[in-house]
Amino acid sequence: MRHPSSRALTPEQLESFQNELDDLRQQVVDDLGQRDLEHIRGVINAVRYSELAGRVLLHVSFTPLGVVAGVACLSLSKILENMEVGHNVMHGQYDWTQDPALNSKRYEWDIVCAGDAWRHYHNYEHHTFTNILGKDRDFGYTITRLTAEQPWRPVYLLQPVYNVVQALTFEWGVALFGLELERAVSGKMSRQELVGRLKPFLRKAGRQLGKDYVLFPALAGVGAPKVLAGNLAANVIRNVWAYAIISCGHFTADTRVYTEEETRNESRGQWYLRQLHGSGNIEGGRRFYLLSGHLSHQIEHHLFPDIPAHRYPEIAPKVRAICDKYGQHYNTGPFLRQFGSVLKRIVKYALPIKDAKADALQSAPPSVQKTEAMVARRAQRDRKLALA
Amino acid sequence: MTWTLRLPPAAFAGGSLSDLTPAWLKRVVNAELTEFYVSHLSPLWSMRQVKARVVDIVDESAGCKSFILQPNGLWRGFRPGQFVTVTVEIEGVRQQRCYSLSSDWREPERLRITVKEKKDGRVSSWLLRNLRKQDVLLLSQAQGEFTAPQSLSEPLLLIAAGSGITPLRAMLYQLEEHPRNTVLIYYARSREELIFAEEIRKAAAQCAHLTVHICYTAAGHNQAEEGGRFHPDQLSRWVPDYRDRRTLVCGPEGLMQRVRRHWREEGGEARISFEDFTGAFQDVFDPGLIAPSQSATCQVDFQRSACVIEADGRQSLLDLAEAAGLHPPFGCRMGICHSCKARKRAGVVRNLVTGKASSAGSEEIQLCICIPITDVSLDV
């Protein structure tokens, strides 16, 4: 469970590392209040009014500048809605407010992926089994090879190309990914389950397509092609931005992967370590953080996925100080460097490469002994999973 | 600068727009979105929620105020004795409490709730300290069955103590239009804590069929002359025919218990109604009251599954549900993914991650990291 640039911890050190992070979480939870509610309501205001401005501009203006401004407003609205509002509200970050409009289970976002499917595979699968090969389907999204431990196949030669396609159509990738169609193809999914997954997808996708490509263009009359093109552009801009931010979260050079074997009997402290070593941050300014939905602070998000994201920049220095104290690597860097290292990784592992560093990672001994209680707990969790 | 369009609220919130909207349009239009824009044009407007503006605040007695509320067009009216659920945001958290309406039913545009300062009453204290004229509250429609019977020939006995007078005050307004034989016995600690003193005196003077007895219960008052606490002797003295009357009681737990006991002994329980918010809506819980040894015998009621099981105070609610053969949604089992969230109707649970006890009322909890420490009812 060791990161190559991090120190191995004794069980006592690991426990106090865990306690310090638990305490930090508790400090924020105890402090939640009016300020957090005002933040998210402010962002929702910005989402609604920039959408209104964008749609009005697209409808009424026939000059290139007006159309570009409309597309910019609409893209901004969609980016803020998906990243800072949708993603974070659906994580349960604002459930404590008891406001039904901010309830994690009720919220439905402006993207073709239906909320319920996403809640399951993202909140549960990805955040519980982060970077465990074979269990965290977010790692490479099934179609991209990012580590030497994934067996190479000729189709991976094309991954630099289809990652470009994926960036342009990201929301469709997210939605199709949630369907787990590969299980249907290999015959591992019953017909009933397939229908159960397809129905909400088709309903949501139909709604999104109808809104952006039928209803609003139709309302524009002769301006229909212009509005349709503007909506398409806004969706694509949002897609590329989301792809870039999200792929920096776990695919940068310094993030490592795990096997099921080595994570079988994890304690909470070990879970924290895996979240830390499996994630990477992006440095930037306040506006950049907001536009990224604070996924710029992927490490803090993975340690504490359900505390309001705008708190991450405030607690990041404290998290980093704890990591320094325990000699743990804290993966961060400016956007271009982090995204560059993702692109490099995508190109590198397209080839049938054998990686000495990855081999070393794989053979690194687990730093903490497993207790019987941990073994039993994890076995129980696996049983439940199998039942599902 | 803030501005508000002066259109009648009913234009957006009456039967008009929301009822006239065709079903297909409702399917296409995002309800959250419409609600957002409508409420940003004016805080009182809504397509689906009763909202009310505070138009006046009246000091009733020490630590007690009435708030006069003007509801939007979605308000469907009330019957005297009913209550509304008021929603307020306190430090970013929505809180709900019930308040009886003390208003005159002939003035549907002027609702009145009367709020008395209570020890540990978070919402009441907040309302008294922070609510200002022009503020907007979220209301439910009128609820509750604590109302006088329709038949005017049936005589009434009303018993109230403290702020328990509020629903009964609304019933007294009814008498002005529809006179019926009524006796009101009203207990207050002292003259200063009497609520609606002047109005009740006026009502008694106007309505020939209304008799009022006011009793002071604090030490220092002449108990023989001024009544003191509820006692069966008072009934036989003031209302000899009380057994033939429909009786409505509202007040603190102590009064209700004494009255209930007396009626039970007399076998007249069918003819008496109580209004009681303390059980369902208390928000104060002292974890010190629960000794660890007591937690061994909690019962967990999975209401939707019609299944009650015993908890030993060690297993999480999710484990208990699964052990009972139920299939609630589950997830990470460490409190991060929020998949197993469910509504707790009543009871107190301890959060294993924070170590803290929950409130006793209705709220959403994460089944995988909560253990019951009192009897708990869940919507599972």
TrEMBL record, chain A:
Cellular component terms per the entry's GO annotation: membrane
Gene Ontology biological process: lipid metabolic process
One Pfam match: FA_desaturase
Domain Fatty acid desaturase: 78-332
Gene Ontology terms for molecular function: oxidoreductase activity, acting on paired donors, with oxidation of a pair of donors resulting in the reduction of molecular oxygen to two molecules of water
InterPro entries for this protein: FA_desaturase_dom, Fatty_acid_desaturase
CDD domains: Delta6-FADS-like
PANTHER family on file: ACYL-COA DELTA-9-DESATURASE, DESB (PTHR19353:SF84), FATTY ACID DESATURASE 2 (PTHR19353)
Protein name: Fatty acid desaturase
